[in-house]
Description:
The protein is α/β, with parallel strands linked by helices. It has helices spanning 27-38, 55-58, 79-84, 94-107, 197-209, 233-241, 243-251, 276-289, 305-322, 326-332, 350-353, 400-403, 415-418, 452-472, 482-497, 527-539, and strands at residues 16-23, 43-46, 114-115, 120-126, 131-136, 141-149, 171-174, 189-193, 212-217, 223-225, 345-347, 359-363, 369-372, 376-379, 382-385, 388-391, 406-408, 437-439, 478-480, 545-547.
Amino acid sequence: MPEAPDTQPQIDPSIQTLDAVVIGAGFAGLYQLYRLRGMGLSARVYESGTDVGGTWYWNRYPGAACDVESVLYSYSFSKELEQEWSWSERYARQPEILRYAQFVADRFDLRKDIQFRTRVNSAVFDESTDRWLITTNHGERVSAKYCVMATGCLSAAKDVDIPGLEQYKGKTYFTARWPHEAVDFSGQRVGVIGTGSSGIQSIPIIAEQAKHLTVFQRTPNYSIPARNGPMTAAQQQHVKDNYAELRTRQYNHYIGLVGGIEAVPTLTTSALEVSPEERQREYEYRWGLGGLYYYTCYADLYSNLEANETLAEFVRGKIREKVRDPKTADLLCPKDYPFGTKRLCADSGYYETYNRDNVSLVDIKTTPIETFTANGLKVGDQEYALDAIVFATGFDAMTGALFNIDIRGRDGVALKDKWAAGPYTYLGLMTAGFPNMFITTGPGSPSVLYNMIIGNEMHVNWISDAIDYLEKDDRRTIEPTPEAEKAWVDHVNEVGETTLFVQTNSWYVGANVPGKPRVILPYLGGFDVYCQKCDDVVAKDYEGFVTA
Length: 548
Ligand code: N01
């Protein structure tokens, strides 16, 4: 849970006036502040945490790491920063990424315009002034011409949707709100609920500490060994010497996974065009590489079920090889959805953990958790006594953090109401009726299907250019036309329908949150195509937007 504020910010009771308010001090918010300042605008960032870092501030669970290579998962806007910072491992772990965010904040002197321990309660557009009135949990009120929602795609943790938690007397932990002090599970009976990326990363480490670990699995995930390791000095230097070229390849790629230390090819052939032997060689090569490189393997893996099944079965074979008990191995094999259509995981010893004597796996798909009890939880007739329960149960993705703020646009319309049947945006950047409100990596943009730092950087650049355009031309507002927005939403849905992603119950389609409309949330047309579209819109004098 969020830290209790120990020092309250000093609040000015009058309405303050700023050019821009940015909500969230993660990687988007930090860079947005840097750009606004560079344009000579007054801006403040509001952040509910006590420090910068966003996702990497909150998700401190054991094993938390990024599964995009560190040299790719870093800002590109400053050539000096690229040279000054050195990543110690191929895949950076949470503490190092947090240190990087802190380094950036200090390096560019950003903290003086960030107000921590402050939650924005509401953002209301005032049509009489064409400005946003932003109010915080401390009662502060700010009038700003621009409001940037840098609130994150995976920042609103999903509520516990299993009954009886109030009865449970043991300790509870949430991967998305992990305590800042060290948690020691030694000698304890621990339960983990959830086997997505967060569960899969934390389970091997919790298993090493706990007396007994019980994993409650509803849906098994496909996970690939990360094969993390230290970066040598020579590798670091090589990347630094070739950063410009690496960035060019990264920007011009649909998902940005181009290989960090060494280039990894993106295939354009069909999995069904090649012989089974060649396919096997390719799958083995990528298994050996580790990480997410099956997303750049054969071109039809995510649009053709038959192609996908060749890879799914390959990975199931690996799981069966790794896990000694055939029943456990079978339970860990995903069978009822295509490979990679729930976010693929990268692990360090996940499947091997189930060979330990102190780890057991409970299938809660067949028999769901009925309730929590004073001592643990009940599955069917069986009660599991647990000293601690870890919730790795995910997020209300892409819209949850926005809906946690009372956002109202023209005519007092609430964003929540406008988006009741699913998010409606133009380019994932803006929504009609909410002038000058920008969303970084919003629904309808590639966002979570690209690299979050570079994707945010691209959005901040686009937003900053739009703001600059308004300022230089002495205009008051920009917002999409309802027609352009509808055409974009239709396009996002059409592209989604051509893929296997829409078939799977995942957070990509909102299926993990009871009652959430089922809509494909990210844009699946590829980052390169998307960037071209955004550039074209600007080149055509902000086609699809109205400015006044
Ligand atoms: O969350 P998830 P996450 N009863 O939604 C289960 C990014 N990320 O925090 O699949 C029982 O993936 C749920 O079961 P099911 C990454 O984009 C990146 O792990 O709904 N089980 C599932 O197993 C990732 O995709 C990194 O049937 C319940 C799990 O909880 C995203 O964040 C690291 C349940 C939730 O999995 C989210 O990952 C971490 C219930 N009531 C996260 N409710 C890296 O860069 C939920 N579950 C490596």
